[in-house]
Amino acid sequence: MMRTSIAPTSRILIRQGGLTDLEGVLRVCEKHSEYWDGRLPSEIRLSEYFSRALSSQDEVFQFWIAENGHGSVLGWEMLAARSADPARRRLTAEATTCLGKPSGHLGRTLATHAIRHAVRTPLQYLFAQAPVRDTLMVSVLEAVGYQEVGLIPGAAKPPAQPERLEFVYVVEH
Known about the structure:
Blueprint: E1 13-16, H1 22-31, H2 43-55, E2 63-67, E3 73-81, E4 92-99, H3 104-119, E5 125-131, H4 135-143, E6 147-152, E7 164-170
Parallel strand pairs: 4-5
Antiparallel strand pairs: 1-2, 2-3, 3-4, 5-7, 6-7
């Protein structure tokens, strides 16, 4: 049996999420509120959205939880369909990484996990967005191989979103 010198509290376990993770996912969202420019959409809408995402996973579109050695949710990663067109639906995905606290290591670990998963699927492209001012997430996406492809202007209508960068990762099979 191989032993590790890493303390249990610093270990990161990534596992597929389920409905029992909803509370932890919502807690991480509260800490990562810059996606909503500091104003979270209503808790009911978030709860419904993530309940649907956690319960509608399949072999391509999945939701992963990152937790520490004590089972606390540190962050999550989700691959969601980017297109409703049945002919293209399984070719592109929207990748979303959400961290409970700033951590380039955790962000790279989650994004890399999603990329490795995508390689085993029909997906050809992963798209991701990050607020321009979220330099940590921008650097994480660039570090794992995403390429910046555009700038999305900020939205004024609620829920307001800040100016965002769009990235693409070309999945090599």
